[in-house]
Amino acid sequence: MDLTISHEHLADSMTVVRPDEINMYTASMLREILVDLIVHQGRIFLILDMTELVGRVDSTGLNVLVGALKRTQAQGGGVALVGLPEHVSKVFRTYGMTTVFPAFETVVDAEVGLPLVANARRRMKVAG
Predict the structure, then answer these.
(1) Strand ranges inside 1-128, DSSP E
(2) Predicted local confidence at residue 124, as pLDDT
(3) Distance (Å, rounded) from C-alpha 16 to C-alpha 1?
(4) From edge to edge, which strands make up the β-sheet containing 78-82?
(5) What is the pLDDT confidence band of residue 128, given thresholds at 50, 70 and 90?
(6) Which residue of 3, 44, 61, 128 has the fewest CB atoms within a 10 Å radius of its CB?
(7) pLDDT, tens digit, for every residue of 34-62?
(8) What is the C-alpha to C-alpha distance for residues 48 and 69, in angstroms, rounded to an integer?
(9) Going by C-beta distance under 8 Å and a sequence separation of 6 or more, which residues neighbour residue 66?
């Protein structure tokens, strides 16, 4: 199965990624795209816009997202979620991911809020 994904660079280190599904069938392709954005292009702030997500999200897909989160956080960045459909939000709640990934109503909100959340988490880690 082919993954349809688009992305748009917003700032020097910020990119909006729009996957159509995140599951075991698309995980390796999504991982390659995210690793390229983070490691090779220096995009340490990723916003996953899921407003038009047509497929499902499963534990394999979540593992890819957690891997991207770890890579971005190691460089002072982060991963945010936008527009979670209810069926996807339920998966994130089930696996306890709602406390791991900041969620925003819009891409603009995430563009402003993600660097602030990443900075606050960095400060908490240093203080803790």
Answers:
(1) 5-11, 14-19, 45-49, 78-82, 103-104
(2) 81
(3) 22
(4) 5-11, 14-19, 45-49, 78-82, 103-104
(5) low
(6) 128
(7) 999 999 999 999 999 998 887 888 999 99
(8) 11
(9) 97, 100
CB contact at 8 A, 107 and 46: no
CA gap 78, 116 in Å, rounded = 10
Tell me the pLDDT band of 121, cut-offs 50, 70 and 90. Answer: confident
Number of Cβ within 10 Å of residue 127's Cβ equals: 6
- Cross-strand bridge partners of residue 47: 16, 80
Rounded Cα gap, residues 78 and 14, in angstroms: 10
Decide which of 4 and 9 is more confident. Answer: 9
Q: Which residue has the tokens 């803790």?
A: 128
pLDDT of residue 19: 85
CA distance 64 to 66: 5
Q: Where are the domains of the chain?
A: 5-127
Residue 12 is predicted with a pLDDT of: 72
Q: Which two tokens stand for residue 123?
A: 């400060």
